[in-house]
Amino acid sequence: MRHILSALVMNQPGVLAHISGMMASRAFNIDSLAVGPTENELYSRMTFVVGGSAQSLAQVRKQLEKIVTIVKVVDYLDEEHVERDLMLIKVRTDSTTQRSEVKELVDIFRGSIVDVSAGHVMIEISGQERKIQAFIAAVEPFGIIEMVRTGRIALSRVNSMSAEIEVGDPTHSAEKDVEQSA
């Protein structure tokens, strides 16, 4: 079973290495990973997709929560959430007919052509993983030259990880570290 885990982490060097090392030491493969800033500059959000049973993922979650630089971990398995992937893909278009056909597919999948050259178009598309996979299958006959995908990102429709963390909360040392360095 695949789980989408989201971790609110202190925005410090080495956090990603620490987390990925812990996951590797417990033989968990990270299928997808995205890391980026949040609305609060003290924190970053890591969203990763991992496979495993609910029991083994519960153990991983407990281990993650023990890491000092992790503020909170959420498993979106049983929570209403919105998730998205982003992909850039270069598709071969050797003729105007092929270019028109690819453009029609892009429109159907609500993507955007972001670059055009003599022999290919570059397309940006976002959505759930099954949408991305369906688009890849649809353009494969034209010839995929190159593609890159982001890791999955997700947010709860109901709860907010960040809202539960108060700035100045003494249980989270990131604020203290930033205040001391200022």
UniProtKB/TrEMBL annotation:
Q: Which SUPFAM superfamilies match?
A: ACT-like
Q: What does this protein do?
A: Catalyzes the conversion of 2 pyruvate molecules into acetolactate in the first common step of the biosynthetic pathway of the branched-amino acids such as leucine, isoleucine, and valine.
Q: What class of enzyme is it?
A: transferase
Q: Which protein are we looking at?
A: Acetolactate synthase small subunit
Q: Which CDD domains has this protein been placed in?
A: ACT_AHAS
Cite the ACT domain residue spans from the record. Answer: 4-79
- GO BP annotation list: isoleucine biosynthetic process; L-valine biosynthetic process
- Report the InterPro entries cross-referenced here: Acetalactate_synth_ssu, Acetolactate_synth/TF_NikR_C, Acetolactate_synth_ssu_C, ACT-like_dom_sf, ACT_dom, AHAS_ACT, AHAS_small-like_ACT
This protein's assembly is summarised as: Dimer of large and small chains.
Q: Which GO terms describe its molecular function?
A: acetolactate synthase activity; acetolactate synthase regulator activity
Pathway involvement? Amino-acid biosynthesis; L-valine biosynthesis; L-valine from pyruvate: step 1/4; Amino-acid biosynthesis; L-isoleucine biosynthesis; L-isoleucine from 2-oxobutanoate: step 1/4
